[in-house]
Each structure stands twice: as structure tokens, then as C-alpha cells.
Amino acid sequence: MIEKAWEGVIKRTLTSAWKKLWLESVIECDFEGFEMVPVEPVVNEIVSLAKIMGLEVDNNDIDELVEENSQELTTEELMELHCVTQQEVVEESLSEEGEEVTAKQQSSAAIREMLKAWETVASYIEKHHPNKAVAVCTTNLFNDNAVSHFHQILKRRQKQMSLDSFLVKKN
Fold it and tell me: Where are the domains of the chain?
């Protein structure tokens, strides 16, 4: 039973624990064939670059920053970070192109056609993807972040009544 428990302990955990207790005992190579870069020169370089930029930074600030960010991210945090990054890339590409398609340039028929196609794709993915939870989560995420925009356009257009319905010729 103890043997199984020790098999579950990964090398990184042991290295991190021993590094804090007895730094010299930690092996100098993290991966075979790769030498570890000494931390102190890197920290000093970061501090010097920060000072060149006019920032007030010292070695303790860098060490503190590294400690705060040393924990591994959860799956949810990674997905959120990925979404934010993708959104920034999309926004950047739109601003570079300088052409943003407005709601008025899209016909209602084209939007309805796209929504119908999306429903077909989402349905197929949810039925045939091996990981149902991921498929549902992803399609819901896309619905909430992208498709809902087009639903809103159609709702606004349906609420707007044309002037023709008010300006009817009486006989």
C-alpha cells in the first residue's frame, strides 16, 4: 500500500519539496539532456530590464511574482485563458481589417440560414462527439458568445414594425 502511494508522487513534487529544504540536493537537470539555467542571473536580468523601463523592482519582487504564479492552472482556468486569448486575437484581426460587418448589412434570411446551419452542426457534434460533456459545454459556450448576437439581431428586427403597417391607405 505504501509502495502504491509513493508511485503516485511525481518527480516535480519531490523536487519542489527538496528544493525548499536542501537546495544542493536537487538534481541540476530537469529533463534529460537539458541543463537548468541558474535562477539568479535570470532574476537579475529581469530586474535590470525593469529598471531600464523606469520601474522600481528588486529581486524579492520577482521571487514573489514567480511564487504567486507557480501553481498549475485548473482546467477551467486554462479554458477561460484560452477563450480570452482567442477573443483578443479576433478583436485584433477585426481592427486590422478595418471592416466590421454591421447588423444592417446582414439580411434576416442570411442570419436565419446561418442559425439553422449552426443548429445542425451543434446537434451533430452533441450526438457524435465521444465526450458528451465537452461537446455540450463547447456548443453552449459558442452559443452564448457568438450565436446569441445573431439571435438578438433577429429579435430586434421582429420588434421593429415597418412604416408600411402604419401608413395604410384607407378606402
Answer: 2-62, 107-160
